[in-house]
Predict the 3D structure of the following.
Amino acid sequence: MEPGKASNRAGGKAESQLRKGVLEYCVLALMRDGPRYGVELLRELEESGALATSQGTVYPLLSRLRRDELVVTTWRESTSGPPRRYYELTDAGRAALAEFADIWPGFRNAVDHFLAAPPAPPSSAASPSPSIPHAPGEAP
């Protein structure tokens, strides 16, 4: 799939809602080691499979992250086309990512707990089977 086009995979409402809930923090995590540009972020998200998304989702998210001062942008010349806008974490962006990273394991474990197969119900004392009437002369 080319960057910027959403996947054609079958994904229902649950997958969409999960993606919306974590996409911001995954994008911040992708910038943890240095500045990234939009198509690069889209490509990384696509490679993850479950987080594949479109330009129509990522670029508005990046604009919001910039307005919220979680990222700053710079323009850099490109050897293969027009200048590119690079996004880089601010201290506030690093703090938001660290907070999410601290919360995520407990959240994930709680969800996993509820999704795990329920334990077998405790054995109850064997109760006698209800009596089934038999016709005269039939063995019970």
About this structure: The CA atoms of residues 65 and 71 lie 6 Å apart.
